[in-house]
Amino acid sequence: MCTLYTMSGQRTQVSEVLVVGGGLVGLTAALVLRHHGVTVTVVEKRSTTSPQPKARRFTMRSMEIFRELGLAGLVQRAARDLAGHDHMAAGRTLAEAEQLPLWLPSGPGTPVAEASPELPCLISQDVLEPVLRQAAVDAGATVRFDTELLAFEQDGEEVAAHLNDRVTGRGWQLRARYLIAADGAHSPVRRALGIGRSGRGAIGEPSVNVYFHADLGEVVRGREFNLCQIEHPAAPGALASVDGRHRWVFMSKDGATGRDWPALLRTALGVPAPDLDVRSVLPWQAEMLVADRYSSGRVHLAGDAAHVMPPFAASGANTGIADAHNLGWKLAAVLRGQAAPALLDSYDAERRPAGWFAADQSSRRTLNLRDPGPASDTTLAHYLVLAAGGFQYTEGALLAGPESSKDPEPTTEFNPTGRIGTRIPHRWLDRTRTHSTIDLAGPGWALLTTGPTPPPTPGLPVHRLDVDFLPAGQCLLVRPDHVIAWRGMDAGAATEAFTALLNGRNGITPCSGPPLD
């Protein structure tokens, strides 16, 4: 998708967007951009996608994004090995462990309707990334592994990136209108921009992840699980199921790496496991850090480059996927001349508070599976707020009246009513339960109404609905990322709001980056 030309004898390519980092977030960003018709080049210095299982739980909200991209079914098929592994387990050893009951919400505030058209998905990162890579290539993205960003400059028109082919040793240049840095927690791009990070820093003690192979299918049969808490005093930790039979990750809270891991693992398993093969030992430290700015000129941070957090329910990966979804449509609108560049200021205004919220919630949750959350902490978010995109944007590409601040979206319960700045509530729109309100927007905007239909507006299809969260006579203006941007009684005013938001007339200003509380 890139145009080749020569400048001063140097081999140069041109792409509308350069994505640095070919992991989950970078590949998702490429897919979102191609979904909007944007030319995109992804460069990754590694030779392959992640060899480590890493993140394994992808939320309803992430699956909704894959649904919009036409990939939800493909992802679910790739995840078939872990189908039915939704339970947690706990015991002295794996052999003695018992499944824990599935936690289900009950009592006041329990949602009576389904939260999403998509179920969450258990799939390891090393299985998902190749799926996304191939999908990005099939969608027309240029994806180059073994390619390292050496340096970049930006001006008012473009970003010039100096790249190196690590196989041939040849350098080349790519010019892009924008750059997305999805280059990980130690992001060289973020450092080059001089963007600091704020947060709690290191959390808890150093840990070690031991990735190993062993055929434990018969050991866990009838007690299949996603995560098993091992309580043996000589080998405490947690065992994560990567494929339900052969591939496993043992997470030890002891940060020492030079241990007799085969012996310790057999103690934790409680069985001889004669075929046990340790593939890697990876030390790590849980941290909570969020970039003080997500944007600098034509460069935008996403994923771990913007936020790192403890691995509670793969919050970092899911938050990064939402970053890409939010940024992609805005870049496309600006590149296509449909929106003013000021629209891009809303990326930091929206996603930095969302990143802080996710990182804070992950940091405060316990890894004790028998006690999934401190009962005394009444500020912990409802699990569906985290899993179904229940965080509310209060600033950004929104037009909210003064009444909005008097009725904010709750976080300790999940009861979406279509407030401005929130993801549109899911409701099925047909008897076959195949078409959802989530499907009404993306990659374009949508206007939902129960009243008179306004005059046609280019780029703004109108849908007349009868749903419980939209009272008679009301309208909702829904953005391409499924977020409600405006709500009111006058359909004509909705079209004015649509134009104002695309022109950046919403009162947002670039964030200077003070720490968030």
Defining traits:
globular, alpha+beta, D-Amino Acid Oxidase, Chain A, domain 2, FAD/NAD(P)-binding domain, seven-stranded mixed sheet, disordered N terminus, 517 residues, 11 helices, FAD/NAD-bd_sf, 25 strands, nine-stranded mixed sheet
CATH-derived architecture of the domain at 3-81 and 120-198 and 290-353: 3-Layer(bba) Sandwich
The CATH topology of the domain at 3-81 and 120-198 and 290-353 is given as: FAD/NAD(P)-binding domain
Q: State Rg.
A: 23 Å
User: Major sheet, described briefly?
Assistant: 9 strands, mixed
Mean pLDDT, rounded to whole units?
90
Q: Tell me the CATH superfamily of the domain at 3-81 and 120-198 and 290-353.
A: FAD/NAD(P)-binding domain
Question: Helix count?
Answer: 11
What is the CA-CA span between the terminal residues? 43 Å
Number of DSSP strand runs = 25
So what's the overall shape?
globular
Uncertain stretches of 5 or more adjacent residues: 1-9, 104-112, 507-511
Cofactor: FAD
Region (Disordered): 401-422
Keywords: FAD, Flavoprotein
Organism: Streptomyces orinoci (Streptoverticillium orinoci)
